[in-house]
Amino acid sequence: MSNQSIIFFDIDGTLLDFDKKLPESTKKAVFDLKARGHEVAIATGRAPFMFDDIRKELEIDTYVSYNGQYVVLRGEVLYTNPLNKDALLELTQTALEQNNPLVYMDAEDMRASVPEEDEMITTSIHTLKVSKFPTYDPLYHQGREIYQCLLFCIGDAEKKYEQDFKSFDFIRWHPMSVDVLPAGGSKAHGIAKITEKLGFPKERQYAFGDGLNDVEMLKQIYNSVAMGNAEPEAKAVARHITKSVDENGILHGLQMVGLLD
């Protein structure tokens, strides 16, 4: 363990470039890390079923998904933190009144609160370039654990929701969509479950990210690296800033912090 580190990678804008492609230099870097005995993990806002292909391609079975609400260590579920059911029911009613669609997401699937292909849902989810698309089931949140919702609204419409629903955090990931998480839930919290279980000291913890949902992670992890294409808020709290994802930013960052030559 003395020379072994754990490295957490965000997906969109970090592992994957702007075309949702995995740069060859990034893939090689991940396997080089593992060949040196390091633990490599993913920390993403995506649902587990939204990055199956990446996990298989990179042979990674440890991950923090749903921004920390569903954590898997070496293929086994380590920690879950679902949304409060009563508050979610109230959110559903409010969103319906405001004509703001919702997508409910559990560990296996996702369903939408509106029957037709809503333009905001279609536009934002298609940017992820995933094969799965939410079908209509307005009662999907009942009787199951929902780890994250997508609330579809524009401008600063989430501000009113933030005021009214203190048991949730609202983090914008797209001009038309906001992640709805349990209050205080974050990638940083999910990562801590893994690092505590494996016993990695803070000096041996690394994290790469670019988005607003990476801010807590980059703030907490001792060796944090913001991508060159990262949001200003992410860059402001990171210990290091590497090149952009489309400029071999992962490889450059790993070399910069001394994990790779």
From TrEMBL:
InterPro entries: Cof, HAD-like_sf, HAD-SF_hydro_IIB, HAD_sf. This is Cof-type HAD-IIB family hydrolase. It comes from the Bacteria. It holds the Pfam family Hydrolase_3. Keywords: Hydrolase. GO terms for molecular function: hydrolase activity. It comes from Paenibacillus nicotianae.
